[in-house]
Design goal:
- Strands 1, 2, 3, 4, 5, 6 and 7 form a 7-stranded antiparallel sheet that branches.
- Helix 3 packs across helix 5 and helix 4 packs antiparallel against helix 5.
- This protein is an alpha+beta fold and about 230 residues long.
- It has 2 domains: about 10-45 and about 120-225, Calcium-transporting ATPase, cytoplasmic transduction domain A; about 55-115.
- The chain starts with 14 loop residues before the first helix and ends with a helix.
- The radius of gyration is 23 Å and the shape is elongated.
- Helices cover about 35% and strands about 20% of the residues.
Length: about 230
């Protein structure tokens, strides 16, 4: 799991200030620094969700106050012999459980789909050398290189771009690729307008870019959605 780094509006801060706050540089981290940060913050992985079997998931929908009240009402109407009312209440409980069961199943499917979108490796600069590392080994402050066809492996503040375009539909729902740049944008920009940023699980459709990692794992925008 990721560390509790402060989360300023990276998109609104110039590159030099971003690197300074992250205690990084255009030359990247050293291998030793990266290892220390990885040990401290944990891997760049989304947390595993606890999945339940179908039966447990169904009965779990009954564990809330409203259902307890309805079941109590059903018991009372049954004691009084109001069988139609009892049947209606029990029907409501069952329908509620079915809806909750389906929604939880869809949420689990969505989380699995999100994890499939994550990059498996990244090209980074360490000890002033370009090396390929598992994406789970990325840490805040790493300098990452992006090119057409890459999945963005972590949330990054862009330092340099060359005709860079990113498909962000997984986050924003916008089907048209977004043109990116390295200049700061206004602090109150919505996610889809933060053109100086790239986000984990999005896809590079054109061009090239260099960015510094500002968030990993559950601290990324996609991590906020999945947790």
């Amino acid at each position: 799991m990721a560390g509790n780094h402060s989360t300023p509006a990276w998109h609104a801060i110039d590159q030099i200030a971003v690197l300074k706050q992250l205690k990084s540089s255009p030359d990247g981290l050293t291998v030793t620094e990266a290892a220390q940060r990885l040990s401290q913050d944990g891997p760049n992985l989304l947390p595993e969700s606890q999945t339940r079997g179908p039966l447990k998931r169904f009965f779990a929908q009954c564990h809330n106050v409203l259902i307890y009240v309805l079941l109590a009402a059903a018991l009372i109407t049954a004691i009084l012999g109001h069988w139609i009312d009892t049947g209606v209440i029990i029907g409501v409980v069952i329908i509620n459980a079915i809806i909750g069961f389906i929604q939880e199943g869809k949420a689990e499917d969505a989380l699995r789909a999100i994890k499939k979108m994550l990059s498996s490796q990244a090209l980074v600069l360490r000890d002033n050398k370009r090396i390929t590392v598992p994406a789970e080994d990325l840490v805040v402050g790493d300098i990452v290189f992006l090119q057409s066809g890459d999945k963005v492996p972590a949330d990054c503040r862009l330092l340099k771009t060359k005709s860079l375009q990113i498909q962000e539909s997984a986050l924003t729902g916008e089907s048209v690729p977004v043109e990116k740049g390295s200049d700061p944008v206004v602090e109150d920009a919505v996610l889809g307008d933060r053109n100086s940023m790239v986000f984990s699980s999005t896809l590079v459709t054109y061009g090239q870019g260099v960015g510094v990692v500002v968030a990993t794992a559950a601290d990324t925008e996609i991590g906020h959605i999945s947790t």
